[in-house]
Amino acid sequence: IPKEQLQMLQQEFYHQEMIVPFLFLLTGACLCSLPQAVQGIINQVLEKLEESQVPMTDYALKSSGAAVIPEYTSPSYRSSAYKIVLFSLLSLDYVRSPELILEKENHPGNCWPFHGSQGHVLIKLSVPIIPRAVTMDHVSGPPLLKNGVSSAPKDFAVYVSDFSEWGAEGYQEEQLLGLFVFLAPLNPTQTFQLKNEISGSVNYILLRVLSNWGHPDYTCVYRFRVHGDPASKEGKVAL
């Protein structure tokens, strides 16, 4: 990276680290209470910074057509601390969708929680690709949430799987692409090069979280991205 670009990136990090915590202090540590226009500005700044950090195309982006396959994804953690009241009669636990990990918006609390320290999610990519790398994100800035970084994923594995071969017995065909450690306390956005080559393009990627940074109740994934080379029109989807 040229020295000038590195300096600009450092400046953007500095402004992000200073402005966002200040806004949290003004609003009681909750972005949802910020005016919509201010939220929009923050999201634009974070997205611009995000693009500078990881310039590769994300084929697990919901807005581009990617989706979570719920039948083969761990259940979401149900928090009794947040409830939805319907017609003043029915109270339901608030449940956050796993598809949050396929979205660009990244602010404290906007993550997908699952029970305990181990869970998995099956992602249908926006287009068939030959996967080359993945990116894991935790919340940017200082640990503003009560549980800080303890709920972030730590050890995780990435697989390709033949979704058509999955059934009641579980995962019929899996190919490990790599085992990784997400050092969330050091950097909230990290890209990992996949270690094992595959012979063709894939439609589905399986993320398995194997541990977190110490939270006893749940793990929360903010965003997971998949990078690679799109399959040619003549190319055969191997899995």
CATH H-level superfamily title of the largest domain: Galactose-binding domain-like
Number of domains: 2
Q: Low-confidence spans: pLDDT under 50, at least 5 residues?
A: 9-33, 82-93
N-to-C SSE string, H for helix and E for strand: HHEEEEEEEEEEE
Strand content: 25-35%
SS elements, strand count: 11
Based on the structure given, which CATH architecture of the largest domain is correct?
Answer: Sandwich
**Please, how many helices?**
2
CATH class category label of the largest domain = Mainly Beta
> Any idea what the radius of gyration is?
19 Å
What distance lies between the first and last C-alpha atoms, to the nearest angstrom?
36 Å
Roughly how much helix do the residues carry, as a percent range?
10-25%
Main sheet summary: 7 strands, antiparallel
Which structural category do the helix and sheet elements fall into?
A: alpha+beta
Keywords: Coiled coil, Membrane, Transmembrane, Transmembrane helix
Subcellular location: Nucleus inner membrane
Protein name: SUN domain-containing protein
GO cellular component, one term: meiotic nuclear membrane microtubule tethering complex
Write the layout of secondary structure elements.
Elements: H1 3-26, H2 36-53, E1 67-68, E2 79-86, E3 90-94, E4 112-115, E5 119-137, E6 155-161, E7 174-181, E8 189-193, E9 202-209, E10 218-221, E11 223-230
Antiparallel strand pairs: 1-5, 2-3, 4-10, 5-8, 5-9, 5-11, 6-7, 6-9
Helix pairs in contact: 1-2
Keywords: Coiled coil, Membrane, Transmembrane, Transmembrane helix
Domain SUN: 65-231
Main location: nucleus
